[in-house]
Amino acid sequence: MLYSQPCKCPVCDWDVPAEIVRLRGSFDCPSCGKALKVHGIHELVMRLIAVALGFLLARRAGFESLLLFGFGLMISPFLVVPVWRLSTVIKRQVLVPASQGVTTLSLGGK
Ligand SMILES: [Zn+2]
Question: How far is the CA of 97 from the centre of ligand 1 (A)?
């Protein structure tokens, strides 16, 4: 079994288990309950790798030119999650607060 490294919560510094981390959308920190998400650049990189991998697989399967392009794009969404899961084993993911950029009244004071 591959072991995914836990992520650090940027708010409370708690180790967030990789099992609850989602690539798309936000999730709550089990310690402080703040909404977190994977840094946007990670998601972009994973998508690019998945598309490249899709083309590679299509090429191996014998698809040519336009068919290769179409097939690669078609299967890439299915490759994003496995690629990302593998990357969590190799490297710690950077988490950011999901509410970043959204102003809330509670930020003004106590
Ligand atoms: Zn936290």
Answer: 9
